[in-house]
Amino acid sequence: MLDLMASKFASVFNDLNNAGLPSGTAEADLHNLFGSSDGGEITAKTISIASGWSSDKYGITASVDDPTNDSANENILKMISALDADQSFIDTGSDPADTSDDKTIFTGSFHEFFSKLNTTLGIDIESTSTTLDNYISVTNEISDSREAISGVNLDEEGMNLLKYQKSYNAAARLMTTLDEALDTLINNMGVVGR
């Protein structure tokens, strides 16, 4: 949408600055206010001041009726009113020559289009941030669940070690008791009357 705005802005102001010049001539093309920095189509990335304007070969066409009159300014007034005039912002699709898939994105002034663009961008940023937060939350929950199933809990492992140590001590006492009982049976039961 920003490319569409840059292209429309350049087109409207180039047309107004070239008003009164014979269209399609090299002279008309020389009076463009905006051009593309890479020589291609004008986009938000490539929009630039036209080389003829930046090198002072020509300026803003102040008057179409009397270009030599320094006090005439009707064309500049047209440019100022063009900022607030309704424009149709049309998306031409992938092939600008094929008008069958042209779609009017917005009709309104440049200011209104820019406001709509800011609103749309703000909504997109908020939506993307919310989606990112949701994905982070789900990822953390999955990680916590995995750790709960397969992870090592040091408190739980410490309790298990104490339990196994007590079981070992109990088994060792049992063996000691059995050893003493067998010793008594074998060594002390057969000796009578000595």
Automatic annotation (TrEMBL):
Q: Name one GO cellular component term.
A: bacterial-type flagellum hook
Q: Which GO terms describe its molecular function?
A: structural molecule activity
Q: Flagellar basal-body/hook protein C-terminal domain: from which residue to which, for each copy? A: 149-187
Q: Name one GO biological process term.
A: bacterial-type flagellum assembly
Taking the record's annotation, the residue ranges forming a coiled coil are none
Q: Which InterPro entries match?
A: Flg_bb/hook_C_dom, FlgK
Its family remark reads: Belongs to the flagella basal body rod proteins family.
Q: State the name under which the record lists this protein.
A: Flagellar basal-body/hook protein C-terminal domain-containing protein
